[in-house]
Amino acid sequence: MNTPLSRILPLFLLAFAVGLAGCDSTDSNNTNSEARLSLAFTTTTSATAALTARSTTLSDSGNNELTIDRVQLAISELELDRSDDDGNDDNGERDDIERGPMVIDLPLAGEGPVTFAGGIVEAGSWDELEFEIDRLERDDDDEARVLDEANFPEDTSIRVEGTYTLAGGEAQPFVFTTDLEAEQELEFEPPVTVSPESEEQITLSVRLNDWFRQSDGTLINPDDANAGGAFEDNVEDRIQDSIDYEEDDDDSDDDDDDS
């Protein structure tokens, strides 16, 4: 189900944000062709999720609880593609945007979208975003730099910290890591158009509520989804399916009514 596109929302820069600086107009003297475009992540949870002090607590019908305190996502490469016919540079090639690597802290506890890339771009239409959730390695200088800046483990693409509590039991801390490699392709229909001197934001929504659940909604202990765990494949599949492009508010309302 698609959820709503948020445009011109407040911008919150991460400590390790990678900007689109340098993606200026093809003619740097023509300010009329410049526009501002940003990319942001937000997370969604169930209506019953408890949101407290930068943490998100999920529950199931058996009264088990999962509290998520931090989610870090590694992206090795990102490409934003233009759709309009005039999106070519002087060499006749598409004037796309490519960035990476980066490590992103996803927003929790009902926080607003977190901008992870943004800057001045050529005005026009953009129709597709491709990015690779991928493990970062130290044999690449750029990836090694990002690992050090983010204090992020090597050969890891996602890291989650929190606690898991069985019904009636005590909270047990966990650290979930995966080396999941997944290429995400999100198409914008209609394309996102930025006009001269305008400001637009493309928001990606992650359904965090879905990550650590079985098909019947029962919560999974994230420790059981680490490498070699019984739920490793289950959780990796659900993570890949949890990322949406946020579309128009009206479309979202219609979808909610139909569900």
Low-confidence stretches: 1-31, 85-94, 248-259
Summing up helix and strand content along with how strands pair, one would put the structural category as: mainly beta
First-to-last CA distance: 9 Å
Specify Rg, calculated over alpha carbons. Answer: 19 Å
Counting DSSP E segments of at least 2 residues, the number of strands comes to: 13
**Morphology:** globular
Biggest sheet, in brief? 9 strands, antiparallel
Q: Tell me the domain tally.
A: 1
Oligomeric description of these chains: single chain
Helix-strand topology string: EEEEEEEEHEEEEHEH
Portion in strands: 35-45%
Instruction: Output the number of helix runs.
Output: 3
User: What is the residue-averaged pLDDT?
Assistant: 76
Helical content, roughly?
Answer: 10-25%
Organism: Longimonas halophila
Biased composition (Acidic residues): 82-93, 243-259
Keywords: Signal
Protein name: DUF4382 domain-containing protein
Question: Can you walk through the features of this model?
Answer:
Residues 82-93, 243-259 have a biased composition (Acidic residues). This is DUF4382 domain-containing protein. Keywords: Signal. Residues 1-21 form the signal peptide. The protein is mostly beta strands. The chain has one domain (31-243). It is 11% helix and 40% strand. The chain contains 3 helices and 13 strands; from the N terminus they run ββββββββαββββαβα. The protein has helices at 141-150, 232-240, 249-258, and strands at 34-44, 50-52, 55-59, 65-82, 97-99, 102-105, 114-122, 124-133, 158-165, 172-178, 182-194, 199-207, 243-245. Strands 2, 3, 4, 5, 6, 8, 9, 10 and 11 form a 9-stranded antiparallel β-sheet that branches. A 4-stranded mixed β-sheet has the order 7-1-12-13, with no helix packed on it. The longest helix is centred in the middle third of the chain and has 10 residues, at 141-150. The protein is globular, with a radius of gyration of 19 Å. The termini are close together.
